[in-house]
Amino acid sequence: MSTTPINGTKSWMRIPDGTRVRLCEGGQEGVIDGLTELVVGPARNPDGRTQYRLNVGDQERMLVTQEALFLLTDADGIVLMQKQNIDYRRIVTERLRTELTADRFVRPA
User: Fold this and answer.
1) Per its UniProt entry, which superkingdom is the organism in (predicted)?
2) Positive or negative CA dihedral for 60, 82, 97, 34?
3) Cβ count within 10 A of residue 56
C-alpha cells in the first residue's frame, strides 16, 4: 500500500495489486495487477504519469485510470482483494474511502 506525492503537497494512494474492480463503462470485472508508465491515451492516474494494468481474464490485460473503475466490496463494504486477510482489506478500504467517493464502492455483479 504505497502513497505517491502529487504536486509536492497531497499524496495519492494507489489501488493495491490484487484489488477486484469493475469498469465504469461496460461493467467488465477484473483484478489490478500493477501500474505502468507506458500509458494509452491522454488519461492518467492522479500521479499524472501512470495507468493501472487490469487483468480481465484469459491473460487479457487493459490499461485504465482510477476514474474508470469501481472497487468491488463484500456485504460489509470491505474492498475485495486476492490473497489478503480481512484486517489488511479493512485498512485498505479505510484509506481508499478517504480519497474516493462512496459511489465508487460497489458489490460484484
Assistant:
1) Bacteria
2) negative
3) 15
Phi-psi region of 99 (alpha: psi -120 to 50; beta: other; left: phi over 0): alpha
Residue 50 covered by a domain: yes
Is a pLDDT exceeding 50 seen at residue 6? no
State the pTM of this model: 0.85
Cβ-based burial of 90 (10 A; exposed 0-12, middle 13-18, buried ≥19): middle
Report which DSSP code applies to 49.
S
Q: Does residue 5 lie within any of the structural domains?
A: no
* Residues in CB range of 45: below 8 A, 6 or more apart: 12, 14, 35, 51, 52, 65, 66
Answer yes or no: is 62 within a domain. Answer: yes
Four-residue CA torsion sign, 65, 79, 19, 107:
negative
**21, pLDDT greater than 50:** yes
